[in-house]
Prior knowledge:
Blueprint: H1 2-23, H2 30-42, H3 44-62, H4 69-87, H5 97-122, H6 127-161, H7 166-169
Helix pairs in contact: 1-2, 1-3, 2-3, 2-4, 2-6, 3-4, 4-5, 5-6
Amino acid sequence: xxxxxxxxxxxxxxxxxxxxxxxxxxxxxxxxxxxxxxxxxxxxxxxxxxxxxxxxxxxxxxxxxxxxxxxxxxxxxxxxxxxxxxxxxxxxxxxxxxxxxxxxxxxxxxxxxxxxxxxxxxxxxxxxxxxxxxxxxxxxxxxxxxxxxxxxxxxxxxxxxxxxxxxxxxxxxxx
Length: 175
């Protein structure tokens, strides 16, 4: 029950912050990064469900047909992050920048797909594609840094609440 409450609370807070920052013009996939932490700390099944709920919520709120891609790509990234923990160190280090970067690219992918669709339909290269690519690059770099911060904040919260932690998931030992 505590895992469920923590997962729902993390999803709500990260999605709320994502929507507030999105209204300010800073699109960062905070909801997806929170779901990735859930996948790392609680396991693949928890992470895939959290990512699926995040993708469905964003597709519903944004209302664009291209955002339906989030329903597919977010759970795939959660499964990838669970694979990531099995094949990398137990410590939080710079290697965990990569899932955050990948989350930033996947989160900006619906906007890029929409721009490429319009480019193919109208036949001219618009400046909005270049702007979308630059936004994707910015989102990827910032998401990588934010994922590290979410890992540290999530570890502190789960340690305080007595929930399973990312650092103890593989080896079942306290640090």
